[in-house]
Fold this sequence. Notes:
Chain A has 602 residues and is of the alpha+beta class. In chain A, 55% of the residues lie in helices and 12% in strands.
Amino acid sequence: MAHAVDTAFTYRPPLRDLRFVLDEVLGVPDLLQQCGSTEFDAQTIDQVLCAAGQFAAEVIAPLNASGDREGCRLPQPGVVATPKGFRSAYLEFVEGGWTGLGCDAEFGGQDVPSCVSSAVSEMLSGANMAWAAYPGMSHAAYMCVAANGTPAQKALYLPRFVSGQWAGTMCLTESHSGTDLGLLRTRAAERPDGTYEITGTKIFISGGEQDLTENIVHLVLARLKGAPPGVKGISLFIVPKFLPDARGEAGTRNALACASIEDKMGIHGNATCTMNFDGATGWLLGEADKGLAAMFVMMNHARVAVGVNAIGLMDAAYQKALAYAKERTQGRVLGRIGPHAVGGADPIIAHADVRRMLLTQKAYVEGSRAFALWATTLIDMQHRHADAEERVRAGRLLALVTPVVKAFCSDLAIESTLLSMQCFGGHGYIRGNGVEQHLRDARIIPLYEGTNGVQAMDLLNRKVLGDGGKSIDVLLNLIQDWIEAEEATPDIAEFLVPMLGLVKDVREITTELVAVAGSSADIAGAASAPYLRLIGHLMLAWMWLRMAALAGRKGEAAEAIHMSKLATARFYYQRLLPEAKARCLELRAGAASIGEPILDWF
Amino acid sequence: MAHAVDTAFTYRPPLRDLRFVLDEVLGVPDLLQQCGSTEFDAQTIDQVLCAAGQFAAEVIAPLNASGDREGCRLPQPGVVATPKGFRSAYLEFVEGGWTGLGCDAEFGGQDVPSCVSSAVSEMLSGANMAWAAYPGMSHAAYMCVAANGTPAQKALYLPRFVSGQWAGTMCLTESHSGTDLGLLRTRAAERPDGTYEITGTKIFISGGEQDLTENIVHLVLARLKGAPPGVKGISLFIVPKFLPDARGEAGTRNALACASIEDKMGIHGNATCTMNFDGATGWLLGEADKGLAAMFVMMNHARVAVGVNAIGLMDAAYQKALAYAKERTQGRVLGRIGPHAVGGADPIIAHADVRRMLLTQKAYVEGSRAFALWATTLIDMQHRHADAEERVRAGRLLALVTPVVKAFCSDLAIESTLLSMQCFGGHGYIRGNGVEQHLRDARIIPLYEGTNGVQAMDLLNRKVLGDGGKSIDVLLNLIQDWIEAEEATPDIAEFLVPMLGLVKDVREITTELVAVAGSSADIAGAASAPYLRLIGHLMLAWMWLRMAALAGRKGEAAEAIHMSKLATARFYYQRLLPEAKARCLELRAGAASIGEPILDWF
């Protein structure tokens, strides 16, 4: 690197902001009390966050650039070597008990609430996304087995996922079958002993092979002989790399192997594998032909999780941009940073356009952090709240916002990391300065776990139109009740009017879509992307209002963080939220301009 | 590559669309008549475009992915090896006379008008941006010497640039001095023989060293002893790698060398060099202390040129996305692509959200192509139009829109290539499919030749506020006259109202900015980026209106391309142009939210 900047390898865990969001904005300690997690008071949460932040900053952040540069290799057929240092960092992670963080105590886990483990996950991916995806994916497999396994399956696999000895993968995609899983061809044939023989090729399998764990347990979607065509004939199987022996240890090698790894734009340190299953032995997980539903329990959690990852990445990029903008001097700005010697220059953070870029990143990072963590409190409430009605309501809201967390946060991550690079000028294009890697790493998130287009269809078709707008009404009423309760709070009048206007716009547009969507397949399809974006802004606007209200309520006692939140809320409302108006106009234009062009016109 | 798609290495020169824009939309053959270029009729232009398209598609497009993979190397200190095939492609380019395309006949050039050579340049960068930047940068150096050189300097250097034997570079940036060239430290000391001794280090020098040409002529900004501080003490020097001997051949090696090359996000095949000048011999180009102005003649042309490059890149990515969307089958869409067998699926272009993404790319690619080529006709008019008033007016409009071509087109290129990748789903993240390279390559354009933030300040501060809004009035009046002349054209009523509204918004916002900008340095700085974006949409909206009007005027005789333009115009107006409304709101919010936050709040 000819021109590396010393911000390249640092990652500062956003502990203060995580605390602010969890304790002050979301009132998590109280909420967890209502969920029966009495041991998670503010202090305990803080201890977890501090320890995780230290691991992120000191153990895996230093491996981020080197992992990108080195990438994964296939030193011999079927064997994957992760980058230097990844394995020892993983062993340290296991040693610290982190692989069991969000797992049930019954299987040796630490039973940490989702909102806390998600905050940890944000820091891990901010520090090193490629590394963090190994335990991240494995946790998804844990959740899938926990939700669908027989008692024996749970007893066998879950403690080994918890201990980190074994890892898990999700094997869905085939080369001709991604979004449309109904097309998949991998076959499963039942054997007399009750096991299944799995045959087929899966692609894009994150961590399909690695050198971190003793065993890798693949959760594979396949078709049983005679199963109905399409998505109704898909079953889910547990297919371990090494078959568990009588004592539950990794035994005989199964008939599966990693055929190749992908050369990708980013997350080079994470092995994306093509997996061949050549009559491999597997066990049915959940019911026959109900594999997709079984997989989706975990898929939904994974969608929230990757949205959280996106926040970690854009924060890491923002941290670099901010450090650079304070350090780099270029040009003079009269009036802001004070007089300089002749020939001197001001730090570029003094320039209004650089401030615009930094404030945009800040508004997106901190706004989406509050939004995503709010969504993860819904996971905790759904599973643990004392009040059954609250559990149902939380589940409903969670289902609604899951695609928004995934797609909106990952789209913002792309926009925000682009701006982080832009703050560096030409130096942002140089690999040694570290910021361009965040964009390359982040770019996978809008594509995987269901493309953002799929998320938008899930939101509008299934979650909004699917129940005639009832769930979104629950959300809008929640926001409206909140606004009414805050009307007397000082200093937030400027936000209440646009927020109420936005709620009204969303209500009207939703009503219009519910009324017309049935008349053509294109209507929902053409509306889905701007609709998701609109709901994303609804959530961010609400979060920024909540953060501003906290500052307002503090009055004279407001600390710097509160003043900062109020100022950022103002920036968000004045400069970023106007996009929602454009989306409303786009939505009201309807589907005709999308539906009409014939194929030859493209 | 485990999963390469066969669209990876193809580039289809957009000959039909270039013809449409040049002949039908801009009326270039007639315009060139008025500029005295009588030999460039539609047929001649077409011959140039066809030959260039063939070179782009057959010679350099096949080197695009391999060049990215291999990159440039420094096999020994000071020596750069370009990727395999780059040199022979360059020699073929030279052989074809392409290096002299836009150069004066006086120096052996082909005197091809700017609008035609820009269309050629779009195809070259679409096919292989890293390769095309070598002759592209060299042409910028040609223009700088042509504008500022003595007759002897022109006679020595220009024919060698034209023939492609020698290349040129622009050496502006130093590690601490990029946007703020006033900080630069490279020194020039006059010698008794009238030459200068140049000492200093320049970074980010595109093609600073390469293995394509016999000689490399560096145009270096440096400070003469005793020169005033800041930008008023900068001079420009010609500093060749090999000193020309008495016969004008490359002679003695000069005291300069490439110290290193950058490892970058993209354009790997283009060597970005750190250049050390160790008392190198140079000659003053233009007047002492007036180097910045001398350099800027060329810089402005370079800004239009890189905007055009951005269009080539986004078109290449769009071509891949479109081919993939027609080929890839996934999911069923009732009603659009006809019945399929059970288990079958429709090409994804049948899905409304994929169509939305494709139409967005199409609207951006074709709209910005028309805009940028219109801007290049201003170059021709400025230099060659028979009417002196037209020359002045063209120059004024060109100065105004130059930063918009550079920044808006390159920002759209990023947005568009992101969507191209998105159309591929997870396959878009795989290097072998080629589409992600376009994003990495395009990402340099918003950063170099003045960051897009610098362009926005140039537009608003210098070009708009600098003359109290007079130049933008010329543009707005031109558009308004055009609208009035077209009021009777069939089928375009739906565009005229929003277009007039947009003109009105721009007028009002400009008037407001002119009135208040003097009261604080932040006002223009905070407004510059959204203002540039607004003017970008003004230009695209006008271009799409012009293209739609052509279709309207054709009536029954409209061909598929006209129908396609009308449909795309409709899509642009209904779904993309609403963004202009958001920018107006953002602009009217003013600078306070950007100016207020103190440093500690970031």
